[in-house]
Amino acid sequence: MQRLSKPIIGLAGGIGAGKSTVARVFESLGAAVIDSDRLNHEQLRSPEIMETLRSWWGDRVIAPSGQVDRRTVADIVFASPRELERLQDLTYPRIEKRRNELFAFYDADKRVKAIVLDSPKLFDTGLDRLCDAMVFVEADREKRLQRAAAARGWTREEVTRRENLQNRLDSKRAKADYTVVNNSSIDDLRPSIESILASVLASFAADPKGGSSAENASS
């Protein structure tokens, strides 16, 4: 795949920090968003993936709706590193393929100013190496716990368990080029994100060799 002509902005932060909210603000300012969680959910709706998961773990992983029961799958894989690795080996190549297709699609769209990559394991999987800039989304822990409980029904223990499978927050923060604090509203966020986007676009334009390559993306 050819090098991209637009900057890629990676989002990092703890569970419940509001990365999706930040991504929506970027989108409203002319960026395109590639959401790894959404790509994963798309794969879990694939008949091929569903049948494979059923063969591994039985009918319990299929909800009454006929779709994959993501909560049951999460319980299985977060209790067993081996099962998590097996699931990742199944889904990640497909997610990578779709991500690269989206990179090419958005890069060709003249209306798109930048591409935002929202992935919960951006650093863990090496996707940060594709990014021209990294934005860390900061939020108070209590605020993050409230959001995780309201949006996903997760307890404190569940948030802690999932975060323990990712890079430490202080490590993510230290690797970021920009930090935004998301403790309140979108209106409060917007000026900071406008400033970040302007800075990234200016830096990218000033670098004659600027450009990211999506061809070496790993999931």
User: What is the CATH topology descriptor?
Assistant: Rossmann fold
End-to-end Cα distance, whole Å, is: 16 Å
- Number of DSSP-assigned strands: 5
Task: Provide the CATH superfamily.
Answer: P-loop containing nucleotide triphosphate hydrolases
Tell me the fraction of residues in β-strands, as a range.
Answer: 5-15%
Largest sheet strand order: 2-3-1-4-5
Oligomer: single chain
Average of per-residue pLDDT values: 86
Our Rg estimate from Cα atoms comes to: 18 Å
Instruction: Please state the overall shape, judged from the principal axes of the Cα atoms.
Output: globular
CATH architecture call: 3-Layer(aba) Sandwich
How would you characterize the largest beta sheet?
Answer: 5 strands, parallel
Helix content: 40-55%
Structural class: alpha/beta
Per CATH, the class reads: Alpha Beta
Number of helices: 9
Give the secondary structure arrangement, pairings included.
Layout: E1 8-13, H1 19-28, E2 32-35, H2 36-44, H3 47-57, H4 70-78, H5 81-108, E3 115-118, E4 133-138, H6 141-152, H7 156-163, H8 169-175, E5 178-181, H9 186-206
Parallel strand pairs: 1-3, 1-4, 2-3, 4-5
Helix pairs in contact: 1-9, 2-5
Summary, kept brief:
By secondary structure, the chain is α/β, with parallel strands linked by helices. Helix content is 53%, strand content 11%.
Summarize the structure in words.
- 53% of the residues lie in helices and 11% in strands.
- The chain is of the alpha/beta class.
- It has one domain (8-206): Rossmann fold (3-Layer(aba) Sandwich).
- A 5-stranded parallel beta sheet has the order 2-3-1-4-5, sandwiched between helices.
- Helix 1 (19-28) packs across helix 9 (186-206) and helix 2 packs across helix 5 (81-108).
- The chain is globular.
- It starts with 7 loop residues before the first strand and ends in a 13-residue tail after the last helix.
